[in-house]
Design brief:
The protein contains 16 helices and 13 strands. With about 400 residues, it is an alpha/beta fold. A seven-stranded parallel beta sheet has the order 3-2-1-4-5-6-7, sandwiched between helices. Strands 10-9-8-11-12-13 form a six-stranded parallel beta sheet, sandwiched between helices. Strand 9, helix 11 and strand 10 form a beta-alpha-beta unit. It is globular. The two termini are about 40 Å apart.
């Protein structure tokens, strides 16, 4: 892109924090690091970015405002002060475009937009704010006082969220077709574009040898239904297979207790948070990857598994149906129960011909999720947004 004909644009991503691995955070970092530097001057504003991220992406500019993380009640008690710091940092750089991500970063951007209408706001929406609009997420809060507070405040939070979404973003991009439908149901506003998160097709790669373990990589919360996979292991016929669970979360103690109660401690292994450097090998050597979460907006784990040549068994709902094709590169279950999951695992482990057919299609399916394609589409959306802004026609239309 020729900067002689296109002036350089100051662009700022807004994301809560970079302390835990996650698809939304990775999408921010990868896009920020790959956008054309001759066209975009990119920065990222967050509460905190761990040294691991800053060491991996030394060229990125992280602006950390500090303070408690958004998962802490103290963050919400001090939200006006946080918003003031966000405003101050944004005013310091006077961006032409802001790209907020998940809650509360989307609120940061929308509130700023109310006072700075000249700034274009592109919301990359991974899902409607989950702890506001999705009852299962509210029920998954383990701390009883926080859960009660979330329920009591829910009508107010919904009203605030609906107002900000109606006023803040100039354009919305979802992370899947499923997320687009969910967004339109909640906000009654059309989403013209969806943009799948990308994956590094060189970093993740297949490996010839498979080992005798099934793999889950997940945050250990109620919503992820990890207990179903543990229960299913009781019915897996080949006792040589183990279930390896990577991840941390508030449900870990309960899941370990369940494992003990089922006498599966020798077959279910909790390995904690998996370092990024270890993920490709862990995926590639697994016989199968299990994904028990229902109605997942997209799901990076299944895509990472496919790129590493490992078939996936998951729930036939949500964004997973856009990455896993039933009986082609994996298995989708209409009802995600321990019995159904065990039956699917047993069937694949005993049918080498079918397993090899699924495995054959894994990598080719995942090719469309490369970061280059993601960034190219994002740049096209940004350029279109700026063109429409010049014509005064950028506003989204409401759904009838």
């Amino acid at each position: 892109m020729n900067t002689g004909t296109h002036p350089k644009i100051d662009l700022i991503f807004l994301h809560p924090h970079f302390t835990l691995p996650g698809g939304a955070g990775n999408a921010v970092i990868e896009a920020a690091s790959r956008l054309n530097p001759e066209r975009y001057n990119v920065r990222i504003i967050c509460i905190r970015a761990d040294s691991d991220y800053k060491n991996r992406y030394p060229a990125l500019c992280f602006i950390e405002i500090g303070g408690p993380l958004s998962s802490s009640p103290m963050f919400w008690l001090t939200f006006p002060w946080v918003q003031y710091k966000i405003h101050s940092e944004l005013n310091r750089f006077s961006p032409g475009i802001i790209i907020p991500n998940v809650l509360p970063a989307n609120w940061w951007g929308f509130i700023y937009k109310l006072f700075h209408k000249e700034v274009l706001c592109l919301w990359y929406c991974h899902e409607p704010s989950a702890f506001i609009h999705i009852p299962q997420w509210i029920e998954s809060i383990t701390h009883p006082f926080i859960r009660i507070g979330a329920k009591l405040l829910n009508p107010l939070l919904k009203a605030v969220d609906l107002f900000l979404v109606s006023k803040g973003p100039d354009h919305v991009v979802s992370n899947s077709r499923f997320s687009s439908r969910l967004f339109e149901k909640v906000y009654h506003r059309h989403v013209a574009d969806y943009l799948y998160p990308g994956i590094d097709l060189e970093y993740f790669s297949p490996q010839a040898d498979k080992k005798k373990y099934l793999l889950m990589v997940s945050r250990l919360t109620k919503f992820k239904n990890v207990h179903i996979a543990i229960q299913a292991m009781s019915e897996v016929k080949d006792k040589a297979y183990r279930l390896v669970i990577g991840g941390e979360g508030e449900e870990k103690d309960n899941l370990m207790a369940l494992t003990k109660s089922l006498n599966l401690t020798d077959r279910v292994h909790f390995i904690g948070r998996v370092a990024d450097n270890d993920l490709p090998k862990l995926y590639a050597e697994a016989k199968l990857v299990l994904f028990t979460s229902r109605e997942e907006p997209f799901g990076m784990v299944p895509v990472e598994a496919l790129v590493c040549g490992t078939p996936v068994i998951g729930a036939g709902s949500g964004g997973l149906t856009e990455t896993i094709a039933h009986n082609y590169n994996g298995i989708l279950l209409d009802e995600m129960t321990a019995e159904n999951l065990a039956d699917a695992v047993n069937a694949l482990l005993s049918d080498n011909k079918k397993y090899e057919l699924l495995q054959k299609h894994t990598r080719e399916t995942a090719e469309e999720f490369g970061w280059d394609r993601h960034v190219k589409t994002l740049e096209s959306i940004l350029e279109d947004l700026m063109r429409r802004d010049q014509k005064g026609t950028y506003r989204e239309k409401n759904v009838d």
